[in-house]
């Protein structure tokens, strides 16, 4: 039996200024986004993306992740709590970000980015999506450090006691999600996208992959009280929100089968400085 290390969520504190591990994990995710994106541009001469567009994608994506993720958490999971404590909505350093809300926020952001650069939004998402899973992995490490989103009771040898919850061993579900939705999904999507694919195929594969892996992880994660509990048919909120993702992914893959592998949409701005 393991015991959660109860790491101080504050990584650095200087006077009244505190930097939380959770925030640092988001910064790590954004840094990985840029590094992986630059690698893809450099090694794919047919990419419609430029380094300038990658910088735009990071800016738009950051806004989508933070605003959409927080709004999704408030609306999907703990609406009653935030209705009683509205000022806590802005305390994102304490944790509490919804992937599904963040995904919708990023989706809107990528639509705006595609319009700005006169590309189809699926071309944009096909490029951006392989850069995302490692950021998700970093976020789950932030959840683990914060000691939030713990798992259900278990008797497996690696069960972990979260002392501030109770004295019973639980699944370290944050680490499960780190491994599944972060590392495994990154390997699958990065490998799949390394070869030319029809427009929408990478996006569809990600939607299906994340939806299935998240739904599986939900069987080990303790549903929170209130709005995020187990809902109709014994399905959790996370699983209900994953169903539309899986269906959208299937639709995107079916649509992509009618497309030819995209070599192109090369913009005149492709004459850039490397």
Automatic annotation (TrEMBL):
The chain crosses the membrane at residues 19-36, 57-77, 97-114, 121-141, 175-192, 199-217, 237-255. The keyword Glycosyltransferase does not apply. It is an enzyme of class 2 (transferase). Its EC number is 2.5.1.145. Belongs to the Lgt family. This is Phosphatidylglycerol--prolipoprotein diacylglyceryl transferase. InterPro entries: Lgt (IPR001640). It is a multi-pass membrane protein. Catalyzes the transfer of the diacylglyceryl group from phosphatidylglycerol to the sulfhydryl group of the N-terminal cysteine of a prolipoprotein, the first step in the formation of mature lipoproteins. One of its GO terms (molecular function) is phosphatidylglycerol-prolipoprotein diacylglyceryl transferase activity. NCBIfam families: lgt. It holds the Pfam family LGT. The keyword Transferase applies. A 1,2-diacyl-sn-glycero-3-phospho-(1'-sn-glycerol) binds at residue 140. It comes from the Bacteria. It comes from Nitrosomonas oligotropha. GO terms for biological process: lipoprotein biosynthetic process. GO terms for cellular component: plasma membrane. Pathway: Protein modification; lipoprotein biosynthesis (diacylglyceryl transfer). It is found in: Cell membrane. Keywords: Cell membrane, Lipoprotein, Membrane, Transferase, Transmembrane, Transmembrane helix.
